[in-house]
């Protein structure tokens, strides 16, 4: 966090127990609270249908709030029109005006706000420069590629003097390579302009790579808010642990044997360095924390299903004797044939979850791996 | 390749032959009409359609001997005004039906649709009584006021406006556009093609109307061209067919113009690139 980075008292966007429902049985969002600092890159992430776009539209003022309070820079904006909230928005579908050329598309909002002509010119030209579209300024949107259209939408946000920019899955219509490129461009733009960027995505990679803070939404509720490191290393619950990291984390039931030993559903044991509470019923093991040995039938605890060679590493998909699908990430090239018997073991850098899937924090002092 | 080529070529030959035949059936009367408009009436009366005595005399006499210019002027004024009024009022009511939220919106729209289901001929007597009582007979107003808006136009534009991406509305909201600015700056240009279609449709509708002006106008001051054409026929004891043909050719010109100009705009992909 960089509160008061420039020594001034910075204001922020605050969501206070914001809810949205259409009738009592149709709850879209429940009690969402967060503080979004000025100048930060804030990513709202979650699976589709979790209400993340609705939350963004509520901040923008396009959707009404059922309950709670949103304030921007100390002012409650619940009843403020979108235009009075001093923000811009980049839409998933870009929302360009097909009958206007690139330059006019970028200038549209500024003209609507009746800015001085010279200033409009200055801002639009600067914005187009910044997204390197100057030479395309006379083209119509239909004459542009997907990436260029996306840049026009970005330029529109850049040209505005609004200090808050909302983006609703802006990269989801682009192909994989372009997405990586635009991801970097958006990140650099945000840093250069120093704007507050609230970014909605379903893509955990986008969230991890760009965010200062991430809000994880699922099931209409906030699961966790934190920095990418916090989210990855100290997930609040099994859902968050599941959502971040590829390959997927292995969440399996485990039984406590003694104060320091866990039995993973009869397949293998993990020796912990700190006392295990009685509440622990499940564990989460990142695929990289597991290791594999070739083993004969007698000592094997799993069977290989398939392997994927990714270049620097190999993912081994296996089924444990107790029937759990498990993913193991091995460095380099590992050769395991399908149906081969293997012995899997784990480091003790794992997460413990209670019966409600909440992560049980390691006791302070005992914390070795987090 | 060759084996698949043959049937498709045969296919082409058959379908083009059919098309040519049908085109001939449709176009022949039209060209016969144009051709005879250049022939002297005497030749036409004799049935000598292959005469080579071609001249523009019929056109000259149409303009000099009849009030056709006045009729054309009347029709032009009425058609242009009808078109303009329908574009304005239909697009505004369609906007209201799509973008404004008000009570009984759908019920009111259904009422609009119901008026479309009654044929104009069925309403013609009560309408006539109304305009007569209002003292509007034989005046431009009787040709204009009943046609200032149309349920069909509202319906057509409503369907078109509903296709306008909702993101454009949201983007406009964020920029702080009011309803009129959004209507004028975004909805109208986005739906240009539909507006041109409706414009062409209402212009031609007004240009070609016959029954209503026949009932409500009876002097050259307000008579429209289609009725004027009929007038040319009955005023003369001996019909000057050459001149009537020439007049008919003249009044077809705007129809053809509108279609050609309109066609230029019916290109697909005008709105590509707005979303995605």
UniProtKB/TrEMBL annotation, chain B:
All residue ranges annotated as the ABC transmembrane type-1 domain in the record: 72-262
Keywords carried by this UniProt record: Cell membrane, Membrane, Transmembrane, Transmembrane helix, Transport
Pfam families: BPD_transp_1
InterPro entries: MetI-like, MetI-like_sf
GO biological-process terms attached to the record: transmembrane transport
Membrane-spanning parts: 16-38, 76-100, 107-128, 140-161, 182-204, 241-261
Keyword Transit peptide: no
Its membrane topology: Multi-pass membrane protein
Subcellular localization(s) per the UniProt record: Cell membrane
Family membership noted in the UniProt record: Belongs to the binding-protein-dependent transport system permease family.
Name assigned to this protein: sn-glycerol 3-phosphate transport system permease protein
Organism per entry: Companilactobacillus nodensis DSM 19682 = JCM 14932 = NBRC 107160
Lineage: Bacteria, Bacillati, Bacillota, Bacilli, Lactobacillales
